[in-house]
Amino acid sequence: MLKLFYTILSVKDVRFLADTTTATATQEAQDAQAAEMQTEQTTVTAGSSRRRYLRPREMFAYLLTAFGQKNLNEFVNGNRQFFMISFLGISGKTYGLIMFLEMLYDALDDSLSGVIIDRTRTRWGKLRPYFLVATPVWSIAILMLFTTPTFLTTSTAKVVWAVIAIFAHNLGMSYFGVWQIMPFDITPNVNERNNLLAAQKFMELFGVWLPALMPVFVDLLPDVTDNAIGMRDVYSGYALIMVIISATMALYGFYVLRERVPLATREQMNETGILKSFKIAFQNRPMLVLQINYFFNGLKGIGASNEKFFWLHNAGRLTYSSVAGLFTGLPNFIITPLVPKMIRKFGARNLGIFAGLFGGAAYTLMYIIGYKPFGAWDSGGNIVANLVYMTIMLTICGLPNSVINVVGTILQGDVYDYGEWKYGVRNEALIATVSGYFQKVANAINGLLSGLVISLIGYVSHTDVFGNVVRETNPTVLDGFWFIFCVMPAIARTLYGVSLIFFNVHGKFKAQMIKDLEERRLEAVRAMADQDSASETPSDAE
Questions:
Q1: Among 378, 456, 476, 530, which one is most buried in terms of CB atoms within 10 A?
Q2: What is the DSSP letter of 314?
Q3: 39 domain-assigned
Q4: Residues 357 and 431 in one domain
Q5: Rounded-to-integer distance, Cα 78 and Cα 81, Å
Q6: Is residue 29 part of a domain?
């Protein structure tokens, strides 16, 4: 097996060298054809191997990359809107419009980047080069997202700066996204791959801790003096630190990781067509329901992206969000291992319905009670009591999160099975492509709404001479922050649960569908075996 594996690598190396030489077109075509034939002959052997391929430092490198990206994404997604509205000075409406346009562009960019990545052939493989190429792009873009240069003196200049930073960040991450599919290429051993993915998910549970500590540094700023460090400087400095950590881990991943799974043939890469994908999408009912479900679930992000406004202006300190966050995520460590058992007992679709309705009811109850049941957040006793209450309520509201994350993956698998049962072909790539379009459009709408709601409640950012945000005192605006914080997630969770009622792959239908698929697959295997036997020549039989 080791000799065969080295043979595969040798053939791939020959292919890489052939692509970079100046040989004639005929010779290149012959080399490519030979390489593709070799790939087809070895794919099954490599994929069914039980050998362990990953070295400990490769697993360590991949987990570090995942950990760095999780922390960076949490920091960017949780603070970008707050920083750009509060410090850069663009309005919520402008920010929402930029995000809407960026998400529409993202839907097209992801498709283009996917085609380019699939057809990349280098001596380092097709994925690893983008660790090296894309990292400087998103690193510079993120630093732009959290800086306000002095030459940005006009509103137009600030908007242009924001557009360049946001679009450059999107471009870099489109290509750096290869790290998420790296586990499927660094080992052909399915069990080894699954273990790596499980370790990644567990590692990402710790990926919110570093971003959660940032508000503590903001609230520990020294008294305002002429030489004081402003809140804006803390955000910029923290962004630099997060970029250095994540970029270092990404470059280490490029250096250590190796790709081992044989490349797909050109024919296989050309099988997926956009028009065909959309046609199948509109014929695949469970997939359409799942896309609507994703959209409703994404509405919760409107509340999450605006939560910094609530903690600073309503509660008084960003640190309170860090304190609450230390506890609200703890149930995920307990519930996640139990979700598979609950799915086996109740079914993924039914469990998702319950999780959505439970989350909607919990957020609604929190909104009705209010954020200061023990009085205003202006005295020691009130602050502690209110913070304990908020932490408990947010923990209860967050109980369905782990369930929803796992259920989404299970239901996506049901969509793939339904597509195979309905159309006779298992077309995960086609469905994934269409899903990407739907999700990008949904994200674009949610991004637009996320900025618009800030303008709709009448909030206008003000900062002092040191760059610190001045707390809002208008009761109407404060009530608006609380509404966004609670009601938007309540609506999102409720609609998530209701939409799953129309997901028809469940119960007896699902059981019969799986049975039909098993019989079809068995018949296909027998047909292939009969065809092979009939095609044997006497010399072959001997």
A1: 456
A2: I
A3: no
A4: yes
A5: 8
A6: no
For 277, residues 6+ apart whose C-beta sits below 8 A from its C-beta are 430, 431, 433, 434
Q: Indicate if 248 and 319 belong to the same structural domain.
A: no
Residue 102: per-residue pLDDT: 82
Would you list the DSSP string of 100-138?
HHHHHHHHHHHHHHHHHHHT---TT-SSTHHHHHHHHHH
Residues 153 and 237 in one domain: yes
The Cα–Cα gap between 113 and 101 comes to 18
Model confidence at 431, pLDDT cuts 50, 70, 90, reads: low
Res. 24 pLDDT band, cuts 50 70 90: very low
Residue 44 lies inside a defined structural domain of this protein: no
This prediction's pTM = 0.61
pLDDT for 277: 54
Angle at 438 between CA 120 and CA 335, to 5 degrees: 95
Same domain, residue pair 350 and 442: yes
Q: How far apart are CA 428 and CA 413, in angstroms?
A: 9
Residue 261 pLDDT? 64
Residues 164, 70: one domain? yes
The average pLDDT across 309-338 equals 84
Burial of 156 (0-12, 13-18, 19+ CB in 10 A): exposed
Cβ neighbours of residue 127 closer than 8 Å, sequence gap 6 or more: 117, 120, 178, 179, 181, 182, 185, 259
What is the domain extent for residue 331? 272-526
| Confidence check: pLDDT of 189 > 80 | no
Distance CA 291, CA 278 (A): 13
Last residue of a domain, one of 205, 237, 261: 261
CATH code of 118's domain: 1.20.1250.20
| Spatial distance between the Cα atoms of 456 and 255, rounded to a whole number of angstroms | 49
Q: How many residues are listed for the chain in this entry?
A: 542
Highest mean predicted confidence (pLDDT) among 195-199, 206-210, 535-539: 206-210
Token code pair at residue 153: 């003196």
The pair of structure tokens assigned to 451 is 């900025």
Instruction: Identify whether the C-beta of residue 212 lies closer than 8 Å to the C-beta of residue 324.
Output: no
More confident residue, 203 or 142: 142
Residue 10 has pLDDT above 70, yes or no: no
Helix (H) or strand (E) holding 148: none
